Amino acid sequence: MILQRVLATVLAVGLLSAGALAAPGHKPGEGHDHPAETAYGKPGDPKKPARIVQIVMRESDGKMLFVPDTLKIRKGEQVRFQLRNNGEVDHEFVVATLEDNLKHMKEMEKNPDMEHDDPNARRVKPKKTAEIVWQFTKAGTFDFSCLIPGHRQSGMFGTIVVE
Q1: Class assignment of domain 39-162?
Q2: Kind plus residue range of the DSSP H or E element containing 56
Q3: Residues 143, 96 contacting (CB under 8 angstroms)
Q4: Buried b / exposed e along 63-98 (16+ C-beta atoms within 10 A)
Q5: Alpha carbons 131 and 119: distance in angstroms, whole number
């Protein structure tokens, strides 16, 4: 009887500890953990008005491109990025600081099958569309890139200037 209680307590403590280690809303090993606010803003509210910005991803003459590749946004503005992959291969759209994107690009080189479906990032199959709603809460110059190995190096990046 005492052994059963001890085992039940150990099991309960173990389960509680495992749950405490998981990020809120995520199961262990599932997805990326993103803070509510970052240096480049925060996830937007899809129910609130947003400026629509269409971004086309494609390949052309040996280069990989975002069209447009430069954006100007007002501080505090919420943007609904409508992403369209007109290319022949998968592409990604990842909004972050340049430093964060370059760091993550190195991780992608080690794990090329990593796929993004995060508040600030989407992988889009050829001839498909996706959407990101993001609010730019801080002024600065930020980056958007395709972090699939070789894509950023082939020209697939852009700049967001928030004023």
Answers
A1: mainly beta
A2: strand 51-60
A3: yes
A4: ebbbeeeebebeeebbbbbebbbbbeebbbbbbbee
A5: 10
- CA-to-CA distance for 160 and 137, rounded, in angstroms? 13
CA distances from 44 to 65, 68, 101, 127, 144 (A): 25, 21, 20, 25, 16
Domain range annotation of the chain: 39-162
Give the position of tokens 């925060």.
42
E strand or H helix at 105: helix 98-110
Tally of residues, the chain: 163
**Mean pLDDT in each 10-residue stretch from start to end of the chain (163 residues)?**
37 34 32 67 96 97 96 97 97 97 94 85 97 97 97 97 98
Instruction: Give the distance from CA 60 to its chain's centroid.
Output: 25
Helix (H) or strand (E) run with residue 5 in it: helix 2-21
Peptide bond into 119 cis (omega under 30): no
pTM of the predicted structure, to 2 decimals = 0.77
Q: Compute and round to an integer the Cα radius of gyration of the chain.
A: 20
